[in-house]
Amino acid sequence: MRVLYFGTYEQDYPRNAQVISCLRRAGVEVVERHVGVWEGRRRRWRAGFAGAIRLAAAELRLLRRPRENFDLVLVGYPGHLDLSAARRAAGDRPVVFNPLVSLSDTFVADRRRFRAGSPAARLLAAIDRRALRASDLVVADTQANARYLAALADLPPERLDVCLVGAEERVFKPGWAPPARFSCLFVGKLIPLHGLETILAAARQAPELPFQIVGSGQLEPLLHDRPANVEWVPWVEYERLPDELHRAGCALGIFGTSGKAQRVIPNKAFHALACGTPLITADTPAARELLTHEQTALLVPPGDPHALAAAVRRLAAEPELTRALGAAGTQAFREHASEDVLGRRWRALLERTLSLRSAP
Q1: pLDDT band at residue 195, thresholds of 50, 70 and 90?
Q2: In what order do the strands lie in the sheet with 72-75?
Q3: Minimal CA–CA distance to 286: which of 101, 136, 42?
Q4: How many CA atoms lie within 13 A of 135 on its CB side?
Q5: Who has the most CB within 10 Å: 12, 154, 170, 257?
Q6: Which residues contact 326 (CB under 8 A, 6 or more apart)?
Q7: Each residue of 45-102: pLDDT tens digit?
Q8: Nearest to 18 by CA among 357, 333, 353
């Protein structure tokens, strides 16, 4: 099987890099038709007029007929505006969409960039629906997200399936050991989804424990009066993140209270599991698809700093539990989210889509 990975997708975003890596590992030949728009821009979605011009030019370039031979087109993230060009490139071959997120959910409900019901919000919802409906198959990252996307675009269940996000194993490898000095590590964009307010409030309730926050984003102002036990590092190179995880006492996932937070398992959770770092994250339907409380992670109610502070203190005081969670988390990653497992899963989904398209 030969797959054309197509669009303005962000090449260095983990979801794209890992899907391509998993497919190749599973024996699928992947060729890329990529026109860059987002690379090299840390605040990619604030590109304004210049970004719109770049995106429009990229879509025009994608309309050219591909010269590559392929069996199927796979549109990467973010690719919601690429589906028209993808359908043209595919001809009578199937198109699979790897959306990761809904644009309207992200920018209206979660980040609140646009007011619900505003013209911008309606436009984003229309873009979502058109992109999802233009695909032969939509591959979501969790069952919870698949149900949401199906309802958003009014798609039948057979038009959606699920493959977990996972982690790039060339980067994230086991290596965690209990540190001499326990600390809590959060890595990610400072956006409402991740629950920065909850993390900071928990840090204030556990002043004896150090917290390190790595990331930047719209909620940076909350860090201006952070407590003394919180260190803020705006940026760490992707390839260095495993070193930070291996040194930490535990890793923090997401703690936001939005609908989106209920439906996703973030990259940072898979990174921690792959490295063997004990994980604390919100107890959500999505998290329960992979994790079990007190077995593979500690799960706490979303938006509850008291519960988070108690969980952090528990891990700091119970080294045996911490070691057990780290080992069991890594085992869960190997069984459900390793590149071998996900590669076989992706290949099976694509082969099924090809067989359905070729059936009478």
Answers
A1: very high
A2: 29-34, 2-7, 72-75, 95-97, 137-140, 160-162
A3: 101
A4: 35
A5: 257
A6: 176, 276, 277, 278
A7: 455 556 677 778 888 888 888 888 999 999 999 899 999 999 999 999 999 999 988 9
A8: 333
Query: Residue 331 has which token pair?
Result: 């085992």
Alpha carbon distance, N-terminus to C-terminus of the chain = 20
CB contact at 8 A, 315 and 321: yes
Q: Do residues 14 and 69 touch, judged by C-beta distance below 8 A?
A: no
Q: Does residue 99 sit in helix, strand or coil?
A: coil
Amino acid at 244: E
* Paired strand residues for 279: 251
Structure-token pair, residue 239:
């390839």
Question: Pairing mode, if any, of strands 184-187 and 160-162?
Answer: unpaired
Let me know: does 333 contact 270? Beta carbons within 8 Å: yes
Residue 138, Cβ density class (10 Å: 0-12 exposed, 13-18 middle, ≥19 buried): buried
Amino acid at 191: I
Query: pLDDT digits over 317-345, tens only?
Result: 999 999 999 999 999 999 999 999 999 99
Residue range 138-176, pLDDT digits in tens: 999 999 999 999 999 999 999 999 999 999 999 999 999
Q: Can you tell me the distance from the alpha carbon of 250 to that of 315, in angstroms, rounded to the nearest whole number?
A: 8
